[in-house]
Amino acid sequence: YAFALQKAITLKVNEDSADVVKWLEDFTVPLFKAGLIYDASSVWEIMFRCLQESKETLNQEKAKCLSELGTCNRRIGLEEKAKKQFEKALNLLEKDVVIDHLTAQIANNLGECLMANGCAERAEEFFILASSFEADFSDEQIETKIKILHNLCDLRIISNNLLEANKIINNIFKELNAEIGDCKPELASTYNSVAIVKFRENKVLDAENSLKNALRCWSQKSDEHIVGVSRTYINYGDILAYQSKNEPALAHYRNAAKQFEKHSSTTHMNLAIAYYKMSCMEHELKSNKALNHAEKAFEIATECGTIDDGWFTAIEDHLKDLTEYNNKLVESISN
After folding, report:
1. Rounded to an integer, what distance in angstroms lies between the CA atom of residue 330 and that of residue 334?
2. pTM score, two decimals?
3. Which helix (H) or strand (E) is 133 found in, with range?
4. pLDDT computed for residue 16 by the predictor
């Protein structure tokens, strides 16, 4: 299959390099819809190699390939690898001084990777760059526009500017011709943001309902969005933990971790956070799994390479406290 596909792509590049990326994009859409992310990724990797071997410059086509590869890697939780691919794609577009929807899409994706690594200030630069093309988006590009608005909303939430966050949320619902309670697939990430805003406004029940809506929206999507789904489960677990519903909260943190594990993706900060929060709940519930999961969280966080991230510090401190607690417990039993 791979050999035949490579031959087909090579012939297509030599035949008409200007149209080949669009042809390949149509080819991989069914793979994405079927959730076959690894297969889609392998197709784009073959395509990128063929473009590199071409005598033509083809910077835009190469950037498109790298963007698709980055998207594939984000879907399976490989944020760091995706970040490098988006950076390389933007650099290729800058060489051709290209300013279009593709630039906005890649800039937004890069901003999301930086946000996932706790680099909000750097991420904002790319979200602002992406939003500068907003007026040029066609009706078919509404999904990118919504993603950019959602990310700007997240930044306002981080800075606790809830008034501006609510304005952006209302704008998103208006763009999608939707109301609170509607469960369009495009609203999945937005409901996460709604939940955080409601929680900070001390409207806990509204926050919980928003996360239920988010999970319903995710279930309607035809492909896998493990980062977004895991984030929803973590947020839901946090709200349940706030209400001292420790057992249900623990179940949601486990569901967050399962999103990565079922795709054999073991290096993502969301996975580390899920294990960290599982450990916190297990410690509350006097479970002997707490220390093992704290160690697992620290191991994953270290592999992510984001040691300057606030989550890394929280995970590291939790592991130290739990280790000390267990050592004292063992010593007490021995005595």
Report:
1. 6
2. 0.74
3. none
4. 57
| CA–CA distances in Å: residue 122 to residues 45, 142, 309, 313 | 28, 24, 13, 20
Map tokens 């079922």 to a residue: 262
Q: In the structure encoding, which two tokens stand for residue 97, read together?
A: 């001084």
| Tokens linked to 106 | 């890649």
| Burial tier of 90 (Cβ tally within 10 Å: 0-12, 13-18, 19+) | buried
CA 262 vs CA 77, 257, 258, 281: distances in Å:
11, 9, 6, 22
Q: Which residues contact 84 (CB under 8 A, 6 or more apart)?
A: none
Angle at 120 between CA 237 and CA 318, to 5 degrees: 45
Under 8 Å between Cβ of 191 and 214: yes
209, amino acid identity: N
What DSSP string runs through 217-275?
HHHH-SS--HHHHHHHHHHHHHHHHHTT-HHHHHHHHHHHHHHHHTTT----HHHHHHH
**Predicted local distance difference test score (pLDDT) of residue 262:** 73
What is the pLDDT, as a whole number, of residue 12? 57
Q: What is the mean pLDDT of each run of 10 residues along the chain (335 residues)?
A: 57 57 70 73 80 74 88 78 92 70 88 82 88 67 82 89 93 86 83 93 94 90 73 94 95 92 72 94 92 93 70 90 87 80
For residues 17 and 4, what is the distance between their CA atoms, to the nearest angstrom? 18
Number of Cβ within a 10 Å radius of residue 82: 26
**What is the per-residue pLDDT for 65?**
87
Distance of CA 327 to the CA centre of its chain: 37
Query: How far apart (Å, rounded) are the C-alpha atoms in residues 130 and 86?
Result: 13
Q: How far is CA 208 from CA 105, 165, 239, in A?
A: 31, 18, 7
User: Residue holding tokens 């697992």?
Assistant: 296
3-state secondary structure 165-220: HHHHHHHHHHHCCCCECECCHHHHHHHHHHHHHHHHCCCHHHHHHHHHHHHHHHHH
Q: Which amino acid is at 325?
A: Y
